[in-house]
Amino acid sequence: MAPHAGVATVLALSGTRADGRRWMLTEIIASGAGASVHAPGRAGVSTDVGNARNTPVEVIETEAPLRVECYEIRRGSGGAGLQCGGDGVRRAYRLLEGQGWVAYRGERHVGRARGARGGEAGATSMARVLRVDGAIELLPARARIAWSAGDLLIIETAGGGGWGRLAPIESANPPARSCP
């Protein structure tokens, strides 16, 4: 089996609303599982924190002055191979009012989940803030930053490693192969 993305992205968002009330949200964001000889890796799963669950967008937007502008599978982030690694996820949060703090702890910002048996490595993680003034702030794997109303936080988690080398076809009549 190829390595999982091995990332439990831990996000803590907090702040003060325009009326002075405080709020806080903590979330664990999933990544991609590694592929095996039997199957591709799963996308958007928690491979190293087995009791972590997805926080529904409706809960986030009800409890905090946030709009989740994007929540999707990060297509193509799993490593290529005969069996592809699982893709990570992309989440984007916009602070709607007041000021706040982002505490971010991610993994795989530099190292990638390697492929197995010739499969390719998954993509690295990335986090950034798009500021209201147009500035882009890239976040390292561990960060604590301030943010203001209108700023957009984008988290992209790593993909898992692929399994098996995609070999060139050597025969004029190759055997049929089903595609996912």
Describe this structure as you would to a colleague.
The protein is mainly beta and 180 residues long. It has one domain (9-156). The chain contains one helix and nine strands. A five-stranded antiparallel sheet has the order 3-4-9-6-7, with helices on one face. A hairpin with a 5-residue loop joins β6 (126-130) and β7.
Q: Secondary-structure blueprint of this entry?
A:
Layout: E1 9-16, E2 22-29, H1 57-63, E3 66-73, E4 89-95, E5 99-105, E6 126-130, E7 136-139, E8 142-148, E9 152-156
Antiparallel strand pairs: 1-2, 1-5, 3-4, 4-9, 5-8, 6-7, 6-9
Give a concise summary:
With 180 residues, this protein is mainly β. The chain is 4% helix and 33% strand. It is elongated.
Distance between the termini: 19 Å
Oligomer: single chain
Radius of gyration: 19 Å
Would you tell me the overall average pLDDT? 89
- How much β-strand is present in the residues? 25-35%
Order of helices and strands: EEHEEEEEEE
Question: Which characteristics define this entry?
Answer:
mainly beta, single chain, 5-stranded antiparallel β-sheet, disordered C terminus, 4-stranded antiparallel β-sheet, 180 residues, 1 helix, 33% strand
